[in-house]
Structure prediction request, 146 residues.
Amino acid sequence: FFMFTSIIMSKPLYGDKQIYSMLETHCEMISGFPNLLGIHIYNDKEGRVLQLDIEAININNKNYVLMGMGAMSQIGQYSKTSFQKFILVEHYPEPKIPTGFESDTDCAINYFVNQKITENRWMKDCLSNSILQRKIENWSQLNKNN
Prediction:
């Protein structure tokens, strides 16, 4: 009985290609989701990263962050190999400098999926918007072959 229950309670896990496809489809289904420019799955010094690049229209719209991080949390939790962080990069027509946001995956999933923490706590303790101030060479090296 215990073995049967744990099989039923376990969630399916998917590889990177399936996660990519599921995330792309999920974003298309979200009403008002901005144009998806890219989905990237890679390793950095801290571990595996799931990154969304979107084309944002309004620079002051915090809903883009919530939609993007929510989508990554909903789909990223099903990865065979867990992610350490989610990154959302918003690209604007003007100014041409993108805005980036980063969240620890466990923390994001606890807010968006499990509802164990509040939005304010997630934004204060888990969300960082200073990621694009890091040296661009690090990103270029990681993504030059992708």
In short: The CA atoms of residues 73 and 108 lie 6 Å apart. Residues 1-8, 133-146 have pLDDT under 50 and may be disordered. The first helix runs from residue 2 to 9.
